[in-house]
Design goal:
Layout: H1 4-16, H2 27-35, H3 42-62, E1 68-72, H4 76-90, E2 96-100, H5 102-108, H6 124-158, H7 161-172, E3 181-184, H8 192-205, E4 209-213, E5 229-230, H9 233-249, E6 256-261, E7 268-269, H10 281-286, E8 291-293, E9 307-309, E10 312-316, E11 324-325, H11 331-344, E12 349-352, H12 359-370, E13 378-381, H13 388-403, H14 424-434, H15 436-444, E14 446-451, H16 454-470, H17 476-490, H18 497-500, H19 503-514
Parallel strand pairs: 1-2, 1-14, 2-3, 3-4, 4-6, 5-7, 6-12, 12-13, 13-14
Antiparallel strand pairs: 7-11, 8-10, 9-10
Helix pairs in contact: 1-2, 4-6, 6-7, 6-8, 8-9, 11-12, 12-15, 13-14, 16-17
GO molecular function: isocitrate lyase activity
Pfam families: ICL
Catalytic activity: D-threo-isocitrate = glyoxylate + succinate
């Protein structure tokens, strides 16, 4: 990016070359508008954020304390406020991303109404949300720079050259709110061609990173529900290839693919893999199928399927649905094979969907993967589907019991109860929860930690609290004390909601376009001046 003064100089020369036709155009204003709209297309964003993500991945390989994080966002405003808060509290957006959850799109963005996480929502809704999120993030840039430009005007009017210089440096060094989005494409919404076409829409909207899972697209289930059905590796790899071709076609050469495996909790497959020789990938996949050995053709009933497994004839266990069942206890081995295969065939990051947040469990699988692919690293779902309090209290309980410590005062099944909050076990479990991301990155090579649907829960919780007070005895005090007063005291920018929605930006544009004739909204009678 060029500096503000350089841009003003270049625009002045451009205006002067027009022979007086552009005399009403002020180069300072045009330069400000350019600075407030750094990204012109979704592809500009995808290329910019891909380079950020690749640099973060390289930094993590050198130092696992430099992991990245995100929160799931179901609306552009939520994503915008998250990144404004990040800059406010931490001074930088570095290593903070957005996550776009298919679960929340299904639950909150479908024209069919709230839906379960089963790929029933409109496939284009995800691409539309990517575009919406980046529209709001770009507006956050314009909003923050607008305040800086107004301060610059005040400093220039006051003749404070030091302040003018300082503000110009701050504007030139401005850090954008635009950050990488990890976008959930579910199981690809169809065959590989459908996955490719949808991936292009994601990328054109700005996505630099696409997460793809190995479930059957028309039987897809939430990763934390039962009934998950996986596909043979060749089917999944075709979709990884489809996403890579989409990135390359659109010139995002360093786009990132996250390969998610649901095999740990998936006990079913839709079909038997194609195999050409013993030990190939299809044969390994089929080797996990549950069934019974048969000795002769007489044991084959009408409609039975028979395969060769470890040199023996085997009849796979087939359910009434036509699906085939995997051997009990084979989940971790299937996860390891899934991950190695994906990384060896074009994926950049792994996602292992687990049933609980347990560092040792995750690390054990990743160590096996890294024996074959030494730079393997994970995206991990810090899921609200886990009961974090109960899980970590039980983990502490189990650790103490293994150490021989007296745990007789604790009931393992009841550890969620509030009576355990202030106990030694409760406090230690909270410490383990607090440190989970740090320890999982250190021990299990988790590059990125996300929470899929936190803002779904925060919206419900805050709305419940407000409704309880406002429609109850507190009346208007519920909003004033619980919301507005907190916004004012905590410096939450939305307290000036007109400004946050772009009123001041619009006023400045009116002045750019109309000059002294501009009819502005932000005068003395604007009640926003009370804040």
């Amino acid at each position: 990016m060029t500096g503000l003064l350089d841009d003003i100089k270049a625009l002045t020369q451009l205006r002067e070359a027009q022979g007086g036709k552009w005399d009403a155009i002020k180069p300072e204003y045009a330069a400000r508008m350019r600075a407030q709209n750094r990204f012109h297309t979704g592809l500009d964003i995808a290329r910019y954020t891909a380079s950020i993500m690749r640099a973060d991945m390289a930094a993590f390989d050198q130092d696992r304390s430099r992991y990245t994080q995100s929160l799931g966002c179901w609306h552009g405003f939520i994503g915008q406020q998250k990144m404004i808060a990040v800059k406010k509290h931490f001074g930088s957006t570095k290593r903070r991303y957005l996550y776009l959850s298919g679960w929340m799109v299904a639950a909150l963005r479908s024209e069919l109404g709230p839906l379960p996480d089963q790929s029933m929502h409109e496939k284009t809704a995800v691409a539309h949300l990517i575009e919406e999120l980046y529209t709001f993030l770009k507006q956050a840039d314009a909003w923050e720079l607008n305040h800086l430009f107004r301060k610059l005007d005040d400093a220039q009017a006051a003749g404070d050259r030091d302040q003018v210089a300082a503000l110009t440096r701050e504007i030139d060094g401005f850090e954008t709110h635009v950050v990488p989005i990890i976008a959930d494409i579910d199981a690809g919404f169809g065959n590989a061609e459908a996955t490719y076409l949808l991936a292009k829409q994601f990328i054109l909207a700005g996505a630099c990173c696409i997460q793809l899972e190995n479930q059957v697209s028309d039987e897809k289930q939430c990763g934390h529900q039962d009934g998950k059905v996986t596909v043979p590796h060749e089917d999944f790899l075709a979709k990884i290839n489809a996403v890579r071709y989409a990135f390359l076609e659109l010139g995002v050469d360093d786009g990132v693919i996250v390969a998610r495996t649901d095999s740990l909790g998936a006990g079913l497959t839709q079909k038997i893999a194609v195999t050409h020789r013993p030990g190939d990938l299809g044969d390994q996949y089929n080797g996990f199928l549950d069934g019974e050995e048969i000795q002769s053709a007489n044991e084959i009933a009408n409609g039975d399927v028979v395969i060769k497994q470890d040199g023996k004839l085997m009849r796979p266990k087939r359910l009434a649905s036509g699906l085939y069942q995997f051997k009990p206890g084979s989940g971790e081995d299937r996860v390891v094979l899934d991950c190695i295969t994906s990384l060896q065939n074009g994926a950049d990051l792994l996602w292992i969907e687990t049933e609980k947040p347990h560092v040792a469990q995750i690390a054990a699988m990743v160590e096996r993967i890294r024996e074959v692919v030494p730079d393997a690293k994970l995206v991990y779902n810090n899921s609200p589907s886990f009961n974090w309090t109960l899980n970590f209290r039980q983990q502490v309980f189990d650790a103490w019991q293994k150490e021989g410590k007296d745990v007789s005062r604790y009931d393992r099944a009841r550890l969620m109860d509030a009576e355990f909050d202030a106990t030694e076990l409760g406090r230690l479990a909270d410490e383990w929860t607090r440190d989970f991301q740090r320890h999982a990155s250190r021990d299990a090579y988790v590059f990125h930690h996300l929470i899929t649907l936190p803002t779904y829960h925060t919206a419900a919780l805050s709305t419940d609290n407000l409704a309880k007070g406002y429609f109850g005895d507190e009346g208007m005090l519920a909003y004033v004390a619980g919301v507005q007063r907190q916004e004012i005291r905590q410096g939450i920018a939305t307290v000036k909601h007109q400004d946050m929605a772009g009123s001041n930006i619009g006023d400045d544009h009116k002045e750019f376009f109309h000059g002294e004739a501009a009819l502005k909204a932000g005068g003395k009678d604007n009640t926003m001046n009370q804040f």
